[in-house]
């Protein structure tokens, strides 16, 4: 059973845009908002060469990776053909305008993967 925690408001995520959720370890989690206000959460790490999916372009139910333009399905994390690969997906719940993620997934999913290959700095010392 999910252990839901609120991470932001739906209104904090731009329509057809993204927002990142920081974790103590491992790559961050990218939240994506579709044009019809659905929210998907993926590990912010492209299955190709670890590009930052949160910096990609959201269209329909997919995001185009900013590094080499692979298209990743937001619901499954799978790359669209002819490319092949999958980034981990997180459960999302919307409740009264709040975006909620499962604490247990945040603490475990993709936690041992190396950081993204490019993108905005996440450390105060950078
Ligand atoms: S790293 Fe995402 S398409 Fe290459």
From TrEMBL:
Record-given protein name: Nitrite reductase small subunit NirD
Naturally occurring in which organism (per UniProt): Roseateles amylovorans
Rieske domain mapped to chain residues: 5-101
Claim: NAD is one of the keywords in the record: no
Keyword vocabulary terms for this entry: 2Fe-2S, Iron, Iron-sulfur, Metal-binding, Nitrate assimilation, Oxidoreductase
Transmembrane segments annotated in the record for this chain: none
Organismal lineage: Bacteria, Pseudomonadati, Pseudomonadota, Betaproteobacteria, Burkholderiales
Gene3D superfamilies: Rieske [2Fe-2S] iron-sulphur domain
